[in-house]
């Protein structure tokens, strides 16, 4: 249950607050709550306790599906959905949003996100309250929903989903390296992983198909985006929209490490798209091929290449403002 681009929230740290509630509630009034207490340097625990209290005070039947591990949390949330929970409410960063997306995509279950992490890119891109449990619970009480697209990947283990950005290349390699590190904690662990990976990283030979149109190139990274940003505000595909039925595909073609370091800071403003080595395509279906390359999605380690990503329009029903405005 790590944060986007800075995998600090280890699943083993997730703890349970209470026993699951009894089954049999009407779906809209039954909420499955999953909390990552380590998100946002402990903000997740505070936000989770407040969310639980606010939901119960509002009269919701709450099943606390938080577990000691990610697998346990997923299993408890699935059990709650089977018992009639019509809303899955996740508290934490983009890693928790990723869990919620995989629990609710393609199902008649609402997703509520209480953003309490470091990056919170998924929440920001949808105009959700950030570090504001009261605002998030208000959206649940008002029942305002927004249908948004999601990326779907078929793997040997079954369907996997993401709501933000899938990255294959330098970002995913760094995410995997950081996940193997036990020290330091927080954003510094990701930063250290970047410094260790840079000297040894080399451009990767890719084959990329966008709606059947194939291109072969050597690139630093390829990003498949359903939303504009990832990694705590990096606007990797500034024009990506979660409601247009398309995926934005960014290709950063081979560039020297000094050149990469010069272009990298501009990703926060989105001005990198004007660089001559940056190419953006749009497609409903994308296939990525490269040997031995990992991927990350919503900041979480995902499936290795090759893989095929399909945009599924309206796959998620999110409790969100209908007019989100520009990400904050």
Automatic annotation (TrEMBL):
GO molecular function: ATP binding; kinase activity; metal ion binding
Limits of the DAGKc domain: 26-157
Cofactor(s) annotated in UniProt: Mg(2+)
Sections of the chain in a coiled coil: none
Region spans: Disordered: 1-30
Gene3D superfamilies, A to Z: 2.60.200.40, Probable inorganic polyphosphate/atp-NAD kinase, domain 1 (3.40.50.10330)
Domain of life: Bacteria
Residue intervals passing through the bilayer: none
Keywords for this protein: ATP-binding, Kinase, Lipid biosynthesis, Lipid metabolism, Magnesium, Metal-binding, Nucleotide-binding, Phospholipid biosynthesis, Phospholipid metabolism, Transferase
SMART domains assigned: DAGKc
Gene Ontology terms: biological process: phospholipid biosynthetic process
GO annotations of cellular component type: plasma membrane
PANTHER family, A to Z: LIPID KINASE YEGS, SPHINGOSINE KINASE
Annotated family: Belongs to the diacylglycerol/lipid kinase family.
Protein name (record): DAGKc domain-containing protein
Lineage: Bacteria, Bacillati, Actinomycetota, Actinomycetes, Micrococcales
